[in-house]
Each structure stands twice: as C-alpha cells, then as structure tokens.
Inverse folding.
C-alpha cells in the first residue's frame, strides 16, 4: 500500500465503543421480550420498537463494512487479510439471516403482544452470531485496519450509518454509545461533527438514552458490560 507516511491511519477505537453498545443491548433484549406479558400490546410495542432500532443499527453497521472495509483490506492486506476476510463475510451472511428472521417476526408481535418466545429465540440467535463476529473482528480485523486503512477511509463507515439512520434516532443512538464510551473516544468522534452537534450531543444524547432506557429497561442505568479488550 503506497500511502504517504504522513497520512493519518484509522483510529479504530470507535468500533470498540459501538461493539459494547451492541453487546449490551442485544444481551438484554431476549429477556426483555420474555418479560412482556402475553397480550400486553403497549409493552410489546415499547420493547419491539427498541429491538427494531437495534436491528437497524446492526444492519447498517455491517452494511458499511461490506461496502467500505472488506474491499480495502482484501486489496491491501495480503495473506493476512485473505486468511480472515472471507470468514468475516460468511459471518455477516449468517448475521443477516438471523436479522431477517427477527425483523420478520417483530411487526406481528408488536401489534398483537402474543407470546414472545419465538421472537426471544430469534434474538438469541442474532445475539450469538453477532457476538462471535465482533470478538473475531476485534482480534483479527481491527489491527489490520489500523495498518491498511486511512482515517478518511475509516470515517466512511460512520458516515454510512449516519446517512441512513433516521435523523430523529441519531442523538439517541449516540447516547447509547456514550453510555459506556471512553470520553476520549467520544471527543474524537465529535471532533468531526458540525459545531452544533459538538455542543449539543454531550448534553442531549445521554439524557435521551436515560429516558429511553427507563422506558425500555425500567432503569436509566441498565447493566454495563464494560470493554472486552
């Protein structure tokens, strides 16, 4: 890879922050679904809407990797990338199948509040597939990205998710990431945002997540899982 030695390379710390968000929320979701009393449509809608949001965010996250990350690593990473990128792609395919199973079940459950066992089991399968993938990605892919992907190229991953996430959900999803995020990483991420976002997000996003978590989890401070590094 003939990169100018002065060119900044990827700061992958934001990926760990996003992964912690996914591990926490998908880890809690199956039991949240099981805790909804059959026929409680109001509660099913609250939990189901949260599940749909998390599925959307996971889907966009992986879509960005498919579009921007795997081709760059395959092109530049030589044998190291060739040994792992196909596995990453296969895992994405398995995650996508599990994701499709969940989103196919959610609308009826949200509407009827019927017994959620099938939804919870589908979420368990999605959680397991995503958790396995994230662990391997952290061990194998992120070190390669630090060496072969520029900061500008890495930023396209986040830009993809921002572009396709409904604007009304952006502060909430950022608050989800901030909940266990390293303050230095949060600062680095916001450094690239417009000035209003840099000023508002640190105040607004945590408040929105606290309100959302109280409604979904029954507490503004759901269990933290911490970093896995």
């Amino acid at each position: 890879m003939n990169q100018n030695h002065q060119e900044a390379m990827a700061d992958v710390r934001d990926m760990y922050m996003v992964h912690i968000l996914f591990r926490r929320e998908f880890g809690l979701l199956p039991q949240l679904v099981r805790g909804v009393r059959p026929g409680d449509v109001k509660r099913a809608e609250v939990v189901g809407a949260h599940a749909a949001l998390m599925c959307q965010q996971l889907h966009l996250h992986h879509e960005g990797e498919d579009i921007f990350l795997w081709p760059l690593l395959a092109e530049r990473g030589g044998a190291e990338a060739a040994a792992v990128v196909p596995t990453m792609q296969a895992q994405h395919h398995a995650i996508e199948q599990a994701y499709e199973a969940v989103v196919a079940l959610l609308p009826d459950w949200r509407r009827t509040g019927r017994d959620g066992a099938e939804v919870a089991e589908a979420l368990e399968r999605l959680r397991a597939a995503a958790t396995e993938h994230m662990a391997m990605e952290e061990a194998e892919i992120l070190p390669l990205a630090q060496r072969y992907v520029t900061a500008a190229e890495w930023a396209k991953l986040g830009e993809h998710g921002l572009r396709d996430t409904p604007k009304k959900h952006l502060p909430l999803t950022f608050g989800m990431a901030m909940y266990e995020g390293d303050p230095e990483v949060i600062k680095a991420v916001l450094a690239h945002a417009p000035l209003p976002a840099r000023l508002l997000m640190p105040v607004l996003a945590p408040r929105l997540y606290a309100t959302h978590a109280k409604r979904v989890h029954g507490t503004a401070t759901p269990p933290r899982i911490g970093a896995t590094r």
The two ends are 28 Å apart (CA to CA).
